[in-house]
Amino acid sequence: MNIAVVALAWANPFNETAREALDEDAGWEDVGTMERGAITVQGRHKVIEGVDCLEASAVTTHDVETMKGIVLDIRGNTDWSSAELTRSDVLKETATEIDYVQVLDVPAPLSDRYWFLHGEVEEGDDVWHFRWSHLEGADVYPEIYQEVATGDLVEVDVNVGSWALLPTEGGTLARFRSCTNVGGSVPAWAGEKAARMMLPNNIEDLFREAEKRSSQ
Question: DSSP assignment, residue 82?
């Protein structure tokens, strides 16, 4: 990875701390299971430097390569994700890294949110990861930043997370982990509560889209 990009991606010190802590299995606490139709999602949380980080996971028999393609389908997020994304643009892409920007429609009277992210793919013998962290869009992509950061939009500058696909008994464990702070006028406790309520959506979206693509 380009050293300049590393420095910009980690301009917020929390990003580096969270990236390391998210990968560690220690410290995660169960918050119960959530049923979404035939899907049972296990939820856990871990507080990292005061931020409530969340994990959702479930076992599936869906094709692993199909799920990898969905996770990396950043441009298609506006179609397959249940999040109200109005923009999901890839800014730079290689075989193992990707920079992108997304805009989330938030119901009034709250302001819409946006974030610039740098993602990395890591593939081992059995385990596949896609990790992302906040990117300083104003420095790396100033023209696009000026285009996006208009009106009363609020930037989410605490945004670190990962997808992991791991072999397990009965198929593949799909695991989503995320640390975010929506910022703006939304109190931290309110943002955390909303994030927990929506946590299973990430797994449900992935499995639903995998089913759809497998049947085509």
Answer: S
